[in-house]
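Thread: "does anyone have the structure for this chain?"

Original post by V.I.:
We have the sequence but no experimental structure in hand. Need at least a predicted one for the grant figures.
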Amino acid sequence: MATTYFTIAPCQYVLCQNEVTMKLYLHQVVQGQPNQNQVAMVPSLQPAGFGTIAVNDWTVIDGPNPSANIVGRAKGVHIQADQANAGWYTSLLIIFEGGRFKGSSLQALGITASTGELAIIGGTGEFKMARGTIKYKIVLNTPNVESIRELNIQAFYTPEIPPAAQGAVTIVNAAGQAPN
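Reply from O.Q.:
Generated one for you, tokens below.
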């Protein structure tokens, strides 16, 4: 007889959700430039660079100018996954470096081109259990040097209950009754 290694329990209350919207910018500086923040680790000789793998530590800034304030970093990997056009599969973790969200992160992935949308599939800190989207478009592009993408972030997340408030929370079931 197999040992059960998990338990499943119905949620007896509705989790509180917060929504956050942000307009930020992602600054990408290609390999070989001063202040580069991405490097091709596995180059490809295929058409359109199909199969190229690059790692990134892009800056996330609060304005469309490359010298805007740094809000965080987008660390991850992108893989050229389109055989004919620019279509990079991107997995990145946006880590916030200051202000209210310092130390919190959003995990996003999807195919990046000049415009599009990434799926937010998780988060940490303030953004625990985040889900949502990042709609983006290129607002500055200097080929083979740098680009800046405008990021319109919409995410839902479960805020932590402060320890002082935990004793004051009454959990009720769907019928509005406190469990025994």
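V.I.: this helps a lot. The mean pLDDT is 88.
O.Q.: and The chain has one helix and nine strands.
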